[in-house]
Amino acid sequence: MSELKSIFEFNEKSNIKQWHIVNDDVMGGLSMGLIQINPQGNGVFSGHVSLENNGGFCLVRHDLERIPVDAFYAFVIRIKGDGKKYAFRCKSGEHQRHTYSYDFKSSKKWQTIEIPFTEMEAVFRGEELKLPNYHGDFLAQIAIIIKNGIEEDFTLEIESIYIK
């Protein structure tokens, strides 16, 4: 068993500029998401998903220096949400086009979600690919996306993201 290794822990002094929003406006959509630090020091990913103009998603991502993760087997995220479905994603290389994705339903109470690498499926633009699941050799990016196919407001509070 591996010990927990921090990928990102939010606090009052977190540099929010290390996180980037990607809304569906890259494809003509009108969704609007943002990331902020709340008074408790947690990251808050919130906004509105619009289906207009072929829209339908908001994503927040954190790029990191590519690190080896072969001594680990899972992500551990600590979140509090709004009861909606999200997906946690990762990339193993900065130039990799597809991501590895794992869907989860948030709770209105704090929850710790363990995401085994082997359950993260390869996807590109929302479509599942016929590739092996995440093999957990390197990590270069983490992200959270909301893409439920409905127009909706959303709020997801993020405390920390670890690997174990």
Automatic annotation (TrEMBL):
NADH:ubiquinone oxidoreductase intermediate-associated protein domain boundaries: 8-158
Instruction: Report the superkingdom from the record.
Output: Bacteria
Query: Pfam families under this entry?
Result: CIA30
Recorded hits in InterPro entries, A to Z, give: Galactose-bd-like_sf, NADH-UbQ_OxRdtase-assoc_prot30, NDUFAF1
Entry's family note: Belongs to the CIA30 family.
Mind telling me what this protein is named? Complex I intermediate-associated protein 30 (CIA30)
